[in-house]
Amino acid sequence: xxxxxxxxxxxxxxxxxxxxxxxxxxxxxxxxxxxxxxxxxxxxxxxxxxxxxxxxxxxxxxxxxxxxxxxxxxxxxxxxxxxxxxxxxxxxxxxxxxxxxxxxxxxxxxxxxxxxxxxxxxxxxxxxxxxxxxxxxxxxxxxxxxxxxxxxxxxxxxxxxxxxxxxxxxxxxxxxxxxxxxxxxxxxxxxxxxxxxxxxxxxxxxxxxxxxxxxxxxxxxxxxxxxxxxxxxxxxxxxxxxxxxxxxxxxxxxxxxxxxxxxxxxxxxxxxxxxxxxxxxxxxxxxxxxxxxxxxxxxxxxxxxxxxxxxxxxxxxxxxxxxxxxxxxxxxxxxxxxxxxxxxxxxxxxxxxxxxxxxxxxxxxxxxxxxxxxxxxxxxxxxxxxxxxxxxxxxxxxxxxxxxxxxxxxxxxxxxxxxxxxxxxxxxxxxxxxxxxxxxxxxxxxxxxxxxxxxxxxxxxxxxxxxxxxxxxxxxxxxxxxxxxxxxxxx
Length: 491
Ligand code: FEO
Fold this sequence. Notes:
- With 491 residues, this protein is of the alpha/beta class.
- The chain has helices at 56-66, 82-85, 88-94, 104-114, 184-199, 203-215, 236-246, 264-279, 295-304, 321-333, 351-362, 379-395; strands at 3-6, 9-11, 14-16, 21-22, 27-28, 33-35, 38-41, 45-48, 74-76, 100-103, 121-124, 129-133, 136-142, 152-156, 161-165, 222-225, 230-231, 253-259, 284-289, 307-312, 339-346, 366-367, 371-374, 437-439, 445-446, 482-484.
- 29% of the residues lie in helices and 21% in strands.
- A hairpin with a 4-residue loop joins strand 4 and strand 5 (27-28).
- The protein binds MU-OXO-diiron.
- The site of MU-OXO-diiron has 9 residues, from helix 2.
- InterPro entries: Anaer_NO_rdtase_flvorubredoxin, Flavodoxin/NO_synth, Flavoprotein-like_sf, Metallo-B-lactamas, ODP_dom, RibonucZ/Hydroxyglut_hydro, Rubredoxin-like_dom, Rubredoxin-O_OxRdtase.
């Protein structure tokens, strides 16, 4: 089976409706995928990429029905991963000696996967051309680390088709091949999911490479990806979208994700989200339990968010493992320009929140005050969580919000614990006299009633009388990182 792409270019790929995992089990392909291979028949016959190794037999069968395999003059391998070069072995067994055009880096990865150093490799660099007759050429463009060192794109002059391989693709399976033929919402969801989960770490390279390609001044009539649709209707839309996504992308969105042993941390998440929505009704708020939700959807939401709140119960004085796994992924994805904060319930020790906060900081997030609650949140603590959400909403607002409502409207007017300045605001020290102060780095609390005798701060010393040389006895950081405590339950 083939599909006409343009003039003498046909799609000869394979569709995979069933696949649900990629990269082991790290990427959930909820809408399947396709492995796009293209056959160009000018004076020379050239195959662009093959398909996943699991479809080798069907691929060779269908390709042989389309073209006499012995007439194939060249194979271009834009990327060595097995979903594109997987059928190369079976193909070259039938047409040995056929030249394989690829990058120098691909020599290592193709041989590393197939163990055939004797294949007729023709390594190319950016700007190299292959004349295919009828006045047309293939121009090669190296795209290292988008997303492997061996990646490249191939441009067909005359028809102005850019064979972009993984870039601009999406794991999306549909009987229709072209972007204007499919559900636009589904398509863009999968494009964003693909970018967020695979390409985010390489965003600076995405920007540089796209600008380099645009600098060539080549017309682009179609972008023929290796997964999903061929962009024929306004193909520059996906290129511009990539430039947008590569530029520290964020929307007016806050994502909360957590794991919860006894539902207590979930109660906190719900209350914090309520507070965010109350203070900023226009911000999008998404909540996920990492143990129950598709992690790629969570990561896509993190990608879209201006800030994330990460919650965990404390288990064995550390965070719950699925939260730790998510934070490891987030660290690897190297998000930039986002805010973060930790929360969680604990029983006799609250190590999880401290560790999450540190991990978020290590991952490059701009950290806001964290929140702990001991045991199950009671009504007052739930209200403190809501207030925390309101404060987060105000701190992270992308536009001017209405002034905070009186605490009386939140039913907590008689609770001195919540009659505080916003937790992460930089309140003048004089307003904090007599109040407990929280170290926002390690969560240690300065209690004026106790002072800090080890630093010669006598019991009864209010915060504004504590010397500026004071250092947190737990983490060693100075007064600047201390904020008023919301209440004992939020210590
Ligand atoms: Fe990098 Fe579609 O494989």
